[in-house]
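The data layer described in this paper is built around a simple, fixed record for each protein. We quote a single record here, exactly as it is kept in our systems:
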Amino acid sequence: MADDVTASVIVDGGCTGPNRTTMLRLAWSRRDPLAVRLLLTAEPDHPALPRGQWMVLRDFLRYGCEHATGDGLVRIYPDRGAQRIVLELVDGGRPCVVRVAMDVVQRFLDSTEEFCPSGEERHDAAIDALIDRLLRA
């Protein structure tokens, strides 16, 4: 859809070994403007390799580019020396640390702002999207 913004990036972190690739996909939709979906996959696929899906607030992700934030399944903080953002993701009790280039995350977030600036989200649409997501879970 033209109102969707996505970014896929190969990440480095302690989740995979030799000959393995971890991919993080960031996805935002105007239908659910407050949220960003994080989808982690690994190739080749194997049950022991990292994978999962998390939802975070778009503003939460932007804040995490500058300051440490989060205390649950997603923790985000900057690694300024390496110009990266660190995502600590927990799925089923299995934590995974993912590092992504800061400029990739910032460009992704800036692209979402072109469709719907922060603070201008229609709250009724966001609530409908949240209810829909909860009913599907």
Notes: The first helix runs from residue 58 to 64. The mean pLDDT is 82. The helical segments are 58-64, 102-115, 123-136. The two ends are 23 Å apart (CA to CA).
